[in-house]
Write a structure and sequence with these properties.
Length: 394
Amino acid sequence: MKISLTIIDFLILSLALQGFVLAGMLFYSAKKINSNRWLASLILLLSYSTALMEVFHSNLPNTNPLVYVFLPQLRLLLGPLLYFYTRGLLFGDKKLTRKDYLHFSPLIFELGPQIAFIFHFCGLLLIPGISRWYLPFEKQVIIFQSGNTGNLPFFFSFVIYAALCFKMVRSNYLNLEVSTFKLTDIRWLKTLLHIIFYLLITWSITIILGYLQLPQLAGIIKYTMTLLAIGFAYWLAMSAYARQSKMSASDVVEYNKPPVKIYFSAIEAGKYSQRLISLMEDDRVYLNPALKLDFLAAQIGISEKLMSNLLNQHVGKNFNDFVNEYRIQEARKKLNDPTTVRQFTIAAIAFDCGFNSLATFQRCFKQFTGTTPSQYQNGSKSNPLQTNIPQIPI
């Protein structure tokens, strides 16, 4: 058996080999960055598919059809892998659900030769229900072997997944609060998706030329798509590894933090924060023991979800801590007033400042001042914090 390889073939195979190595390096780095598992799988499959294209364009399948059995085409996995990498990069690593596994079901279409092999050699043809619709092994190979018709399902699948990924990135990347390195990776992914669309346009042209059945273009089509595929995989792996190799341990920790969705621009956050300050300092709504998040949201004119986001992302406190800090500040003023201390007990001051229970007041007082109310009243301020009214960052 003679297999002839040109210089371009050797170049393609060498790049595919390097793709395998780089995929392994990214798999190893996935111990620190979870989304790299999907990226490494994508690069590994691109390298494998490129090497497989070289095998299918040689005379090896003609002399040994079992090549189709032992070297399955897995191209329909590329779209789902790109999708899950995009999702993992944007929203963090998530456990796959049953619905997620449906993304891999079209792979059955490309496993025709393997299914035919199992039916042919494992005695399953003795079952009447199978033998009625079974096609001979040779016809199965013809149906599922590589060709222009066989490329169409993969082409349309990849177009759909690339479009879904682009929509996902465009709709979310400006609304996520992530680390600088992750933001760089998300922007890089957006550029990557643009490149994928250019490659798909090129591929569609080669498919059309292939249907024209022009022999002189066959070699150009083959080498164009193969070189583009493996060159893309090599660039994908090298650029990702080069960026992430610059990350320190603390950068990795920040990178892996679940992203938080941002609902306000800086101008909007400042506007709503000013309204919130006015409610707390001018109207003193924190003195109401029945104060809830929905009341503040209604007064400002936003939903509860947006109110919670304003507090958590722009104020840096949850609702309870935000309100209780104002209440403790009010309690400190009363405890510093000798007239108030002589007329009211600590419990009465707590209820007057908006607390529903003495225990909650004592816990919050200790949290924000570092001392108990009685110690503070007696002048024992072992760990006092700032005495000014809490300010909202704008």
